[in-house]
Structures are given as structure tokens and as C-alpha cells.
């Protein structure tokens, strides 16, 4: 997959030679192409700092790769694939750096390797010293260049390789120094939705995607996996374990921490040693295939009613407070077992029964008092689907749970009634910059549709990496470009489609993001132009809307043909089908307005045909079994349907 950039001027240094031609060492004769300014690239997630140098370098057809001892093999493989995709034909290897390079040398390794430190010094750069951090330094030298990818650790080196993948999409790589590291320690997704789980193929694709946005965590927690919830005591079959093992390997290759979550809450007996042992056996089986991170989910359960008489004897009458004590006792025992059998494993993660808001309660107080402080607690914000999350909100959660929380953000998940008929494709917004200081991390709960989920998850990951420099709209555009493989026409078609799915509902009646703001602005402009009575303005507005309607109606076919992963079009099929019909309805509506404006009696026929197509579009339903709530597909509802319905009244026309 490729990440390309918005609003950047490509720097083209003429015909690609077999060596690195640099702007520092131009030919003696003036070349206007070489005189073009060197521009900095846009990188997503946004790095902590990018400092420009002088000049730029083309990779050319031949480069030398210097891999430091012990360098991460996945990072090396990614760099090699990136170079091949960039048109490099010959990759030779070396162990030393020349005093004056005659072509590009790419140095790959961690900052503790002598050759990496030497290369950084020659670029006037220092290694980043933060976990998962990296430094990239590129400098033109002689007829060649040094491009150093230095990771603080193996993860950092892999992230450096991902950034290099983006840099190499341009025709030249500018001289620069990038210092970068994540703001949040945990970043990624939790497959925690109800309804049809992702397939193993979906999950593998998602892990590859997470790597491209520098995420580091995937939690396996599908609500409809019976062996993780309803039948949690039962062992997985060898066949399922084999599939999960393949997934764990894919995660490891992408530097993603695979976290296995189990949901025993509906039937667990907290004080029964047999149930604790059943949990430990399940974790042991997963550990045998390479899982080292575990999670106990206690959400969406009845917590004021015991599942067994033994809990009543042990903890007394059922209550929220007693549930908190019982849960803490079980989780502490599980954490103690993890400490014994796998001392290097990350801490246990749990999601509490009161996972929403930060209001003080007997349950939260019991957890705060009794739960091992090492255990990570997830929290969904001020509500199940919060319209916004602020720094004071996160601080209140820290106080309520007695530790900084791991944010479970229920966006773009579409498994609740208010999301019926919707994909959630708006940018990730209204999370306050600075939350990184108050949270241990952030996990997005995605949709049943994996490929469309990447639009919002790109934003969540970028916010988790660098919340202070996060730009929601630019990141949104970058997500579209990634899906489009860099093709501008497909990117614009995708953004037009995203706009029709901009609605972001909550559990209440008020959404936290409005529907179709781009389309609404266009249609409102047409209404205003018609209403003001100026003939020229009205004629021009209608003519402009003809062009817009054509682009709108044509967008679905462009998306079907142009997205790099066919899964996006497949999983979005009914929405694209409905959008196409709505687009034709809009075309006929504009034709009706144009006819009415010219006094033609054909206006009524156009409007009637538009109404029929709109009804056909509104009748399209979601893919059976794909989502928890099924229903009619919604396309720019409240905006496009209203305009099509109102259009016959905007200009008086003669009926046939």
C-alpha cells in the first residue's frame, strides 16, 4: 500500500541517472528544472520534527544498502520492497561507508550500531532516544548521498522504514532530518464489535494496514467468537488455533502486539478456582502459538447479580461494589499467574463493566481500591460513544480508576441502532490535543467492514502518534489517497463518497458529526443563487451543479475501478449502488431546474424521474448478515433527499 501527499510540488531533477544527481552539485550549465525549490514531504502520522537540509537526491537505478548487525529483518525487507517499487534495479550491499559516495547509500540499523552512529554524525543528526523512536537523515555528498534510517529499537527501525516508504513515493528525497517517536505507548484497534466478525483474511489485511500508520496493537475481541465469550471455558480446535497462529505471526512481522481478549463475564464464577484455571488454560493455549498479551473483558454484563451461589457466600449480597471487589480478585490472580509464567509479558488489560463516563461510583471505588495497579483499564470516554473527549475528561477517569486509562474509542464502530444503514467515514475529530499526557494509549473499535474502517482508523492512529500536531482533514485526505493508490481522480471520488457518510451518531438523538457538509455547502449555494433573483447568478449555479452532479454520479464507478484493495468496493457495495442512483436522481433534478429556468414544460418529467430514482435508491438495503442492525442504506440523508424533494418548488414551471 502507498501513502502519497496533498498539495506538494514534486522536485524533478531530469532524467534518472545511474548515480545520485544532487542539487548541491548541479551541472555547470543552468538548468531551470534543477532550479526548482526543494519541498518538504507530508508524512502521516505527522513526525515530531522535520528539519530541511540543502539539496535533494534521486535514488536512481542503483543503490548500496548497508545493514547494521542485528538490524530488524522486517524493516530491511520493507526498505528493499520500497526501493524496488521506486524503480531501483540494483541493490548491492556493503559493510562500510565510503569517504565520498558515488551513489546513494542507505544505512539501516539501531542507534547503538557504530556504523549507524557514524552515518548520523556525517548528516549532523543524533539518534532519537525514545521507545519506538527513530531518526532519518538524508544528505547529498559528492555524486551520491547518505540516507540513514536509525531506530531506537527494532520497532523504531520498522517505523523508520514505513516513513521511508512514504518518502520514496516522490521523485526525489530532500535532504532532511526527521526525529520522531510516538506520543502514546499503545495505538491501534480492538476488534470488539457485535455482529459478523472479520475473516482471518480481513484481519491479516488489517494488520498490514496498521503497520503503515505506525500502530502497534491489535486486540482480538470479536463479540461473536463463541470460544471467547459464550463458550469461553472450551478450548479452541487445533484448526482454529492454527489460523490464529498464522495471524499472530503476521502481527509480529508487522511489529503489532497481538492481544487476545476473553469475555467470561456472562457466566463466570469469580470465586471458583476452576474458572480461574479455565482462564489460565485458555491463555496457556494462546501462549503456545506466540501470544504474550492478554485481556479480560467484563463489559456488557449484568454485574449486580451473581452467576453462582459461591460468589454470594464469598462476597456477600450482589451489588456494584461487590462486583468490583470480585472482579479485582480474579484479575489480580490472573496477573499473578502471568507474572510467574511469562515475566516479560505486558500487563493484563481489562475493560470494566462501568467502562463509560468518569463519575464516582461504588463499583469504580472498589476497582480503584482493590485492582493491581499494574493492570491496564480501558475506558470509552464520557459516554459509550462520546461526542468529544477533553483533557479534563481523561483526568477525571484517572481519578476514578486510580490510574491513567487506555481509551477505547467507539469510532467508527457501526454495531448499534443509530448507525443502521451507515458507514462511518468522517475524519477523526474532537479529541483534544494533549490527551497523550493523560492516557496510556488509544484503541479504535472499527466497523464490521474492515477496509472502510481504515479511513477513520488512520486518523485514530495518527492522533495517537502525535496528537499535538494532528490535522484531521489532511489525515482524512491522506487516507483517501492511500485507498486510491495515489490516483488523484480516485482520491476525489472517495472524498465525495466519504462526504455522503459523514454522519457520526451517538447513542442519543444528536450526532457528533454532521452529514455531508461538502454536499450541503454546494446545494445551499444553489438554493441561495436561485433565491436571490439574479438571472446570471442562477444560470451559473445551475450550470455548475450539472458538473457536480456528473462527478457525484460517476464517483462509484471510479471507486470500484480505482481503489487498490477490492475489499473496499465489495464491503461498500450497497452504499456505492445507492450513491449512483442518488447521483442520477441529482442529475435529473438539475435537468429539471435547468428546464424550469428556461421555461420548458419538460421540467415536470425530469423531476418525476428523479423522484422515482430517489425511491429506488432509498430501497437499497445493507448486505444481509454483515452488520448487527440491518436496514435501508443512507446516502447524505437530510441533505440530498431534501434537495431532490424541494427542487420542484424552487423555480415555478408549467405542468404538461
Taking all Cα atoms into account, the compactness measure Rg is 28 Å
Instruction: State the end-to-end distance.
Output: 55 Å
- Tally the helices: 19
Total number of distinct structural domains: 3
Helix content: 40-55%
Mean pLDDT comes to 93
Spatial sequence of strands, sheet with the most strands: 8-9-10-11-12-13-14-15
Question: In the CATH scheme, what's the topology name of the largest domain?
Answer: TIM Barrel
Biggest sheet architecture: 8 strands, parallel, barrel
Regarding CATH, which class of the largest domain? Alpha Beta
Descriptive report:
The protein is an alpha/beta fold and 656 residues long. It folds into three domains: 49-180, Chitobiase/beta-hexosaminidase domain 2-like (Chitobiase, domain 2), CATH 3.30.379.10; 186-483, Glycosidases (TIM Barrel); 517-649, Methane Monooxygenase Hydroxylase, Chain G, domain 1, CATH 1.20.58. Helix content is 41%, strand content 14%. It is built from 19 helices and 15 strands. It has helices at residues 73-85, 114-122, 154-167, 200-212, 238-253, 273-287, 309-315, 320-341, 362-370, 391-401, 450-465, 472-483, 488-500, 517-531, 535-562, 566-571, 573-597, 603-618, 640-646, and strands spanning 49-57, 62-67, 90-93, 104-110, 134-141, 144-151, 173-180, 186-191, 217-220, 257-262, 293-297, 349-351, 376-379, 405-409, 439-444. The strands form two sheets. An eight-stranded parallel barrel has the order 8-9-10-11-12-13-14-15, surrounded by four helices. Strands 1-7-5-6-4-2-3 form a seven-stranded mixed sheet, with helices on both faces. It is globular, with a radius of gyration of 28 Å. Mean pLDDT is 93; it is low at 1-35.
Amino acid at each position: 500500500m502507498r501513502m502519497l501527499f496533498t498539495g506538494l510540488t514534486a522536485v524533478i531533477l531530469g532524467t534518472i541517472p545511474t548515480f545520485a544527481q544532487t542539487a548541491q552539485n548541479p551541472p555547470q550549465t543552468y538548468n531551470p528544472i534543477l532550479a526548482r525549490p526543494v519541498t518538504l514531504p507530508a508524512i502521516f502520522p505527522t513526525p515530531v520534527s522535520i528539519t530541511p537540509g540543502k539539496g535533494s537526491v534521486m535514488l536512481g537505478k542503483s543503490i548500496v544498502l548497508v545493514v547494521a548487525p542485528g538490524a530488524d529483518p522486517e524493516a530491511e525487507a520493507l526498505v528493499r520492497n520500497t526501493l524496488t517499487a521506486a524503480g531501483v534495479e540494483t541493490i548491492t550491499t556493503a559493510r562500510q561507508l565510503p569517504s565520498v559516495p558515488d551513489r546513494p547509500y542507505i544505512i539501516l540499523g539501531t542507534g547503538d550500531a557504530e556504523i549507524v552512529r557514524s552515518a548520523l554524525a556525517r548528516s549532523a543528526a543524533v539518534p532519537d532516544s525514545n521507545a519506538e523512536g527513530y531518526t532519518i537523515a538524508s544528505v547529498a555528498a559528492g555524486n551520491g548521498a547518505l540516507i540513514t534510517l536509525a531506530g531506537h529499537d527494532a520497532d523504531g527501525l520498522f517505523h523508520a522504514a514505513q516513513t521511508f516508504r512514504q518518502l520514496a513515493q516522490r521523485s526525489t528525497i530532500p535532504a532532511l532530518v526527521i526525529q520522531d517517536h510516538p506520543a502514546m505507548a499503545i495505538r491501534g484497534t480492538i476488534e470488539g464489535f457485535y455482529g459478523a466478525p472479520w475473516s482471518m483474511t480481513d484481519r491479516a489485511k488489517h494488520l498490514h494496514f496498521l503497520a503503515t500508520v505506525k500502530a502497534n496493537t491489535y486486540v482480538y475481541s470479536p463479540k461473536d467468537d463463541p470460544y471467547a465469550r459464550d463458550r469461553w471455558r472450551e478450548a479452541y480446535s487445533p484448526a482454529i488455533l492454527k489460523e490464529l497462529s498464522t495471524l499472530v505471526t503476521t502481527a509480529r512481522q508487522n511489529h503489532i502486539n497481538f492481544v487476545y481478549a476473553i469475555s467470561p463475564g456472562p457466566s463466570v464464577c469469580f470465586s471458583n478456582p476452576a474458572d480461574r484455571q479455565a482462564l489460565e488454560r485458555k491463555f496457556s493455549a494462546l501462549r503456545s502459538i506466540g501470544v504474550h498479551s492478554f485481556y479480560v473483558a467484563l463489559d456488557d454484563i449484568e454485574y449486580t447479580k451473581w452467576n453462582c451461589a459461591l460468589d454470594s457466600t464469598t462476597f456477600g449480597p450482589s451489588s456494584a461494589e461487590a462486583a468490583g471487589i470480585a472482579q479485582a480478585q480474579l484479575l489480580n490472580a490472573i496477573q499473578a499467574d502471568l507474572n510467574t509464567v511469562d515475566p516479560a509479558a505486558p500487563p493484563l488489560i481489562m475493560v470494566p463493566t462501568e467502562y463509560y463516563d468518569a463519575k464516582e461510583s461504588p463499583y469504580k471505588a472498589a476497582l480503584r481500591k482493590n485492582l493491581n495497579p499494574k493492570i491496564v483499564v480501558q475506558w470509552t470516554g464520557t459516554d459509550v460513544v462520546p461526542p468529544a473527549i477533553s483533557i479534563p475528561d481523561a483526568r477525571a477517569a484517572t481519578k476514578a480508576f486510580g490510574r491513567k486509562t487506555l481509551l477505547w474509542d467507539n469510532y467508527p464502530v457501526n454495531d448499534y441502532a443509530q448507525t443502521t444503514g451507515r458507514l462511518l467515514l468522517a475524519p477523526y475529530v474532537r479529541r483534544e490535543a494533549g490527551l497523550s499526557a493523560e492516557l496510556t494509549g488509544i484503541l479504535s473499535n472499527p466497523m464490521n467492514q474492515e477496509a472502510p474502517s481504515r479511513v477513520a482508523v488512520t486518523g485514530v492512529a495518527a492522533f495517537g502518534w502525535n496528537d499535538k500536531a494532528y490535522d484531521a482533514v489532511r489525515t482524512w485526505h491522506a487516507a483517501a489517497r492511500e485507498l486510491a493508490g495515489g490516483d488523484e481522480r480516485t482520491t476525489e471520488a472517495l472524498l465525495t463518497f466519504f462526504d455522503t457518510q459523514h454522519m457520526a451518531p451517538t447513542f442519543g438523538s444528536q450526532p457528533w458529526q454532521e452529514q455531508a457538509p461538502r454536499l450541503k455547502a454546494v446545494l445551499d449555494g444553489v438554493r441561495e443563487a436561485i433565491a436571490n433573483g439574479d438571472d446570471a447568478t442562477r444560470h451559473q449555479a445551475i450550470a455548475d451543479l450539472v458538473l457536480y452532479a456528473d462527478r457525484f454520479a460517476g464517483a462509484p464507478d471510479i471507486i470500484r475501478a480505482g481503489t487498490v484493495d477490492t475489499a473496499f468496493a465489495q464491503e461498500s457495495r450497497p452504499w456505492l449502488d445507492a450513491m449512483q442512483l442518488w447521483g442520477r436522481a441529482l442529475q435529473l433534478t438539475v435537468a429539471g431546474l435547468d428546464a424550469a429556468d428556461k421555461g420548458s414544460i419538460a421540467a415536470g418529467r425530469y423531476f418525476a424521474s428523479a423522484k422515482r430514482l430517489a425511491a429506488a435508491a432509498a430501497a437499497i438495503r445493507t448486505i444481509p448478515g454483515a452488520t448487527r442492525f440491518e436496514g435501508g442504506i443512507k446516502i447524505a440523508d437530510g441533505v440530498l433527499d431534501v434537495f431532490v424533494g424541494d427542487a420542484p418548488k424552487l423555480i415555478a414551471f408549467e405542468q404538461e
